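STRUCTURE:
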C-alpha cells in the first residue's frame, strides 16, 4: 500500500463529517473537525507525491 494513502482517505472521511456537522449547533467544533481533516488530506497528498 502506498505511503500517505491512509491519511488522505482518513482525512477525506473526517472532512466530510466536519462539513456535515457545520449545519448543527456545534459550529465551532465542526470547524475544528473540518480543519483537522483537511490537514490530513494535505499531508497525505504530500506523502503520496513525495514517495512515488
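SEQUENCE:
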Amino acid at each position: 500500500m502506498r505511503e500517505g494513502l491512509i491519511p488522505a482517505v482518513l482525512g477525506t472521511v473526517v472532512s466530510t463529517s466536519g462539513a456535515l456537522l457545520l449545519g448543527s449547533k456545534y459550529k465551532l467544533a465542526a470547524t475544528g473537525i473540518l480543519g483537522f481533516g483537511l490537514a490530513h488530506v494535505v499531508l497525505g497528498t504530500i506523502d503520496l507525491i513525495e514517495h512515488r
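REMARK: The chain is about 80% helix and 0% strand.
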